[in-house]
Design goal:
Layout lengths: L7 E2 L7 E2 H13 L2 H7 L4 H15 L4 E4 L7 E4 L1 H24 L10 H5 L10 E12 L3 E7 L5 E7 H7 L6 E6 L5 E4 L10 E12 L3 E9 L2 E8 H6 L7 E6 L5 E3 L2
Antiparallel strand pairs: 1-2, 3-4, 5-6, 5-8, 6-7, 8-14, 9-13, 10-11, 10-13, 11-12
């Protein structure tokens, strides 16, 4: 039975971006809106937003330009980066298929399949936030290092890692990295002025999405540069803080809660 090559793009520790998310991006581009694109691939509107946000965070640039509804109606179109990303993904898929066809006969009888060789590409992570950026500084003492990573022109996030990790990962200024932050570690404060707190990261943004349940709430902040940060908080907190869509807010989290991953 022939094995089909399925490509998943990822870096260690970050969510994989596979064919399903690229099909969603293409569907949105064809339909001209996120809601219609989501319906075409069988996703809910929220699931589509989450997938598209994850792609933008991973690639480091917006893949879609969106406009709000109105007399002319809302819509979404691919950015030049979005077009290039889709084209590159299809070229990579074609090349992977060629490689699989070439190596499969040589693996006959070995107990190894092409699927074994590429299964590492399908790893996932439970971290809700995966943000790509460039390391701007590494400040070390005798035990640990503060890693500053610019995820956009206006936003820098700090991570606290051991010096052993700095050496093993080869962390240095100028190198690209992905930051992983679990949503429960992110605290949301209303307003555009950061409060005086002891946490290392206080990121300004605007509430982009708010999903409420009976007990919990998921708040997505637009932090600029096509990037988002997601926090899970109690529904009571979301209501009492008046975290409505479009309102300014700050995301607060400690540097020790940020995981650094590199290619």
């Amino acid at each position: 039975m022939a094995i089909e090559a399925l490509l998943s793009l990822k870096i260690e520790g970050s969510p994989a971006v596979g064919r399903d998310r690229f099909r969603l991006l293409e569907a949105v581009a064809r339909a001209g809106s996120i809601s219609a694109g989501a319906k075409a691939v069988g996703l809910t509107y929220k699931a589509a937003w989450d997938a598209l946000d994850a792609m933008a965070n991973l690639f480091g640039q917006p893949l879609l330009t969106t406009r709000a509804g109105g007399r002319a109606g809302g819509g979404a179109t691919l950015t030049p980066t979005g077009v290039r990303v889709i084209e590159a993904f299809h070229r990579l898929e074609a090349e992977l298929a060629r490689v699989v066809r070439a190596v499969e006969p040589g693996l006959a009888g070995t107990g190894i399949t092409p699927l074994n060789l590429v299964s590492g590409l399908l790893m996932r992570t439970s971290a809700r936030n995966a943000l790509r950026g460039t390391i701007t500084s590494v400040t070390s003492d005798t035990i640990a290092s503060d890693i500053a990573v610019a995820v956009s022109d206006s936003t820098t996030i700090h991570a606290l890692v051991t010096n052993a990790s700095v050496r093993e990962l080869g962390l240095c200024a100028g190198r690209q990295a992905v930051l992983l932050i679990k949503a429960p570690f992110v605290v949301i404060a209303p307003g555009d002025m950061p409060p005086r707190v002891s946490v290392s990261n206080c990121i300004r943004g605007t509430v982009k999405q708010r999903e409420m349940s009976g007990v919990g709430a998921e708040i997505v902040l637009d932090i600029g540069g096509g990037k988002t940060l997601t926090a899970t908080i109690t529904a009571q907190s979301a209501k009492s803080l008046d975290l409505a869509i479009g309102k300014p807010a700050c995301a607060l989290f400690d540097a020790a809660h940020v995981i650094v991953a590199v290619d």
